[in-house]
Design brief:
Elements lengths: L1 H12 L4 H9 L3 E3 L8 H20 L9 H10 L4 H29 L6 H23 L4 H11 L9 H9 L6 H32 L13 E3 L3 H23 L29 H9 L3 H17 L6 H4 L9 H21 L7 H31 L4
Length: about 400
C-alpha cells in the first residue's frame, strides 16, 4: 500500500508544476523501508556545512586578511564582537563535526558497497570531500597562529618536490618566495569562495541521489518495499540531528578548545619552529602516510594517493560481478576486512598526531602498508574470490 502510494505520487508529479515536483522529491521520495540511522550521515553533513557557511560569513565581516592584523582580528572577534566567541567556536568545531560525519558517511558506503551500483554518486561525493579538505586546510591557516603558519609551510612546500616545475608552482601558490601576505590574502579569498562551489556540487549530489534512489541495506538491486521519505525518515533525521547538535553544543560550550592545538594561540613567528608540527586531527591519517616515506616526493605521492585511491574502488568490481555479489557486505570476510581497515585508519590518525620519532614513524610505515593493502590487495581479492564461489557451473 505504502509503496504504491509513493510510486503514484512520483509518477503523477512528473507532469505537475515545479512546486509539486519539489514536493515529490522532498516529501514523497521513495525510500527503502528498513534504513537505519547510518543513512542520516549525509543529511547531517549538509546541515553542519550550512552552519559553517552562515558562521563563516559572519566571521568574515570582522576578519582582516593581513599578516600583521590577522591574529589580532581573531582576538578582536573573540573579545570585542557581540557573540563573536560563540560564532568562532561554532565555526572552528563545526569543521571537526563535518569531517566526523563525512568519514562516517564514507565508511557506511564502504561497508555496504554502495559504490557498486551508484558510481557517479560516489564520485561526486568524493569530489565534495576533496574540496572540503582543501577548504578546511586553507581555513586553518587564516588565524595566523604558530601551527597555522608552520602547517601551511610544510604542506605547501610539498609541491617543491615535483621535478622541474615544483618550485615555480610553490612560488605561484605563495605569491612570492615564501608564505607571506599575498598567501594569506589568496587563502582567504579561496576559503570564502570554495564553500559556494561545494554547495552547488552538493545540489548535484542530491539530484543524482534522487535519480538513483537510496541503496538498500541488504544491497538488493531493487528494494522490495519502499515508503515515502516524509514523515517516516524526515522525523528520523530531525531526531538524530537534535541528538548530534546537542552533543556538538555541549562540546562548544564546555570544551571549545578540545580539538584545537595550544600553539595556535601564539602569533605566527617564521623565526621560531614549533617543537612538533601537527595538522588538524582530521588530516592526521594522511599526515602519518606522508611521514612514513623518507623521500619528500614519495611521501607526497603516498599522501595524495591514499585519498585518490577511493576513486578507483568501484573499478575493482565490474558491473557483471556486482550483480553476483549483492550479499557480499554481509559475508564474514567482508566485515572482518572492513573493521580491519577502520582500525588501520584510526591508528594512522593517532600516529599522525604524535612526534616524528620512534616508534611512531616505524609504526606509520607498517600501517601505511596495511592501508594500501586493503584497497589494492584485500578488497579486490575478496571480490575475485566471491566471484569464483558464486560462478555457476558449466
Amino acid at each position: 500500500m505504502k509503496s504504491n502510494f509513493c510510486k503514484n505520487r512520483i509518477v503523477n508529479g512528473t507532469n505537475t508544476p515545479l512546486s509539486n515536483t519539489i514536493s515529490n522529491h522532498l516529501f514523497y521520495y521513495p525510500t527503502p523501508s528498513h534504513l537505519s540511522y547510518n543513512w542520516s550521515y549525509g543529511s547531517l553533513v549538509g546541515l553542519f556545512f550550512a552552519l559553517q557557511i552562515v558562521t563563516g560569513i559572519i566571521l568574515a565581516m570582522h576578519y582582516t586578511p593581513h599578516i600583521d592584523y590577522a591574529f589580532a582580528s581573531v582576538e578582536h572577534i573573540m573579545t570585542d564582537v557581540n557573540g563573536g566567541y560563540l560564532f568562532r567556536y561554532f565555526h572552528a568545531n563545526g569543521a571537526s563535526a563535518v569531517f566526523i560525519l563525512m568519514y562516517l558517511h564514507i565508511a557506511r558506503n564502504l561497508y555496504y558497497q554502495s559504490y557498486l551500483t551508484r558510481r557517479v554518486l560516489w564520485y561526486t561525493g568524493l569530489v565534495i570531500f576533496l574540496l572540503m579538505m582543501a577548504t578546511a586546510f586553507i581555513g586553518y591557516v587564516l588565524p595566523w597562529g604558530q601551527m597555522s603558519f608552520w602547517g601551511a609551510t610544510v604542506i605547501t612546500s610539498l609541491v617543491t618536490a615535483v621535478p622541474f616545475v615544483g618550485e615555480d608552482i610553490a612560488y605561484w601558490v605563495w605569491g612570492g618566495f615564501s608564505i607571506n601576505n599575498a598567501t594569506l590574502t589568496r587563502f582567504f579569498s579561496l576559503h570564502y569562495l570554495l564553500p559556494f562551489l561545494i554547495t552547488g556540487l552538493i545540489g548535484v549530489h542530491l539530484v543524482l541521489l534522487h535519480t538513483d534512489g537510496s541503496n538498500d541495506p541488504l544491497t538488493l538491486p531493487v528494494s522490495p518495499d519502499k515508503i515515502t521519505f516524509h514523515p517516516y525518515f524526515s522525523y528520523k533525521d530531525a531526531f538524530i540531528f537534535l541528538v548530534v547538535f546537542a552533543t556538538f553544543g555541549a562540546l562548544v560550550c564546555y570544551f571549545p578548545n578540545l580539538l584545537g592545538h595550544s600553539d595556535n594561540f601564539i602569533p605566527a613567528n617564521p623565526l621560531v619552529t614549533p617543537a612538533h608540527i601537527v595538522p588538524e586531527w582530521y588530516f592526521t591519517p594522511f599526515y602519518a602516510i606522508l611521514r612514513a616515506c623518507p623521500n619528500k616526493l614519495g611521501g607526497a605521492i603516498g599522501m595524495f594517493a591514499a585519498i585518490l585511491l577511493l576513486f578507483a574502488v568501484p573499478a575493482y568490481v565490474d558491473s557483471k560481478t556486482a550483480t553476483k555479489l549483492v550479499f557480499a557486505p554481509y559475508t564474514l570476510a567482508h566485515k572482518v576486512l572492513f573493521w580491519f581497515f577502520a582500525g588501520v585508519f584510526l591508528t594512522l590518525m593517532f600516529l599522525g598526531s604524535r612526534a616524528a620519532a620512534a616508534p611512531y614513524v616505524g609504526a606509520s610505515k607498517l600501517f601505511t602498508v596495511f592501508y594500501f593493502a586493503y584497497f589494492l590487495v584485500l578488497l579486490p581479492g575478496l571480490a575475485r574470490m566471491s566471484e569464483l564461489l558464486v560462478k555457476p557451473r558449466a
